[in-house]
Amino acid sequence: MIGKYVEEGWNHLVSRGLQTVRGCETGNSVRQSRAYIDSIQVELRVIDAPLTADTSCTFFGRKFATPLMSGAMSGVDNIREHGMIVFAKGMQAAGSCMWVGIGPDQELQEICDLGIPAIKIIKPYRDTDKIFQKLEAAEKAGCIAVGMDIDFAFGSKSGDFLKANDWCSPKTSAELASFIAATKLPFIFKGVLSERDAYKAMELGAGGIVISSHSGNAIDYAVPPMKILPKIAKIADRKIPVFIDGDIKHGSDVFKALALGADGALAGRSLMAGMELDGAEGITKVVKGITEELRRNMCLTGAASIGEIDPSVLWLP
Ligand SMILES: Cc1cc2nc3c(=O)[nH]c(=O)nc-3n(C[C@H](O)[C@H](O)[C@H](O)COP(=O)(O)O)c2cc1C
Question: What angle do CA 24, 123, 235 make, to 5 degrees?
Fold first, then answer.
């Protein structure tokens, strides 16, 4: 079971003092998100079930072996030297996609040069010139899409408010439209956690949406991403891909996300756990392990492909 491996890696990170993501303020966002995912139940549809299932998926014109991708990662050099390159190699061996968060342009170039499809998520810098420069660098590096973690407008934790507010700021619709216009690549809105922002993203011409509470660090008592997913998927209406993140660590988590309307799921901390234990190989092991659990869930519910996953197999709370 891959869950045991992830738990072992997680405990290792904690013992080294490297795992500090516990959500902001009361930590309720993290707890409620997990509780909501766990409260969704799945029924069996085994009569005439397929012998195996195809977990491959296509978005932004690329085919992937799995809908499980990396979260928009950064700052993992404390786990392994050149951590982001190690991370990307692990994702590449699993036939997945690498989402890249804050970091130097050179690092992004090195990741793209590996040949793995990469997506760059740019911070909502106050300095908009920097945003345009980062958009250009992502295009030049060969990314398949770009985006912005719009939920980082005030930093990721309450304690960071003043600090992050120095260099990030909320973006207006007009500014977001200008970023979209400045790039040929699909522009993804990461950190959408309301129907209101989803409508705005669609109106502005978003190329994708990531439903996220930034590991529970965006706001205390955040609505669980999986809970709001069906509403946002309905707004996106399959016109653009919808992704979700937040404590994705089991095949059943990914299965539930897909059944509720997501096109893919992003994982941060569970992949870091694999990296802690076995570097790039550990990351590959976690992605493949979760994907095999997803395949099993698909077979047991009668879905031979991702498109055949039937939302009615879920029993919502
Ligand atoms: C070490 C680390 C670094 C991260 N850096 C970024 C970043 O630079 N940009 C971003 O949009 N999100 C960043 N995130 C947030 C993730 O993309 C993701 O939203 C979050 O981790 C939720 O997934 P998880 O619960 O599986 O970790 C980071 C997360 C971690 C754990």
Answer: 80
For ligand 1, whether the C-beta of 245 sits within 6 Å is: yes
CA of 305 to the centre of ligand 1 (A): 28
Helices (H) and strands (E) counted in the chain, each on its own, are 11, 12
How far apart are alpha carbons 205 and 239 in whole angstroms? 10
Q: Considering the chain, what percentage of its residues have pLDDT values greater than 70?
A: 96
Contact 72 CB / ligand 1 (< 6 Å): yes
What is the rounded distance in angstroms from the CA atom of residue 111 to the CA atom of residue 108?
5
CATH class of 2-315: alpha beta
Separation of 230 CA from ligand 1 center, angstroms?
22
Instruction: Say how many Å lie between the CA of residue 120 and the centre of ligand 1.
Output: 12
Q: Answer whether 0.90 is exceeded by the pTM.
A: yes
Question: What b/e sequence results for 91-119 when a residue is b if at least 16 CB atoms lie within 10 Å of its CB, and e otherwise?
Answer: bbbbbbbbbbbbbeeebbbebbeeebbbb
Q: What is the pLDDT of residue 104?
A: 98
The reported pLDDT for the residue numbered 150 is: 97
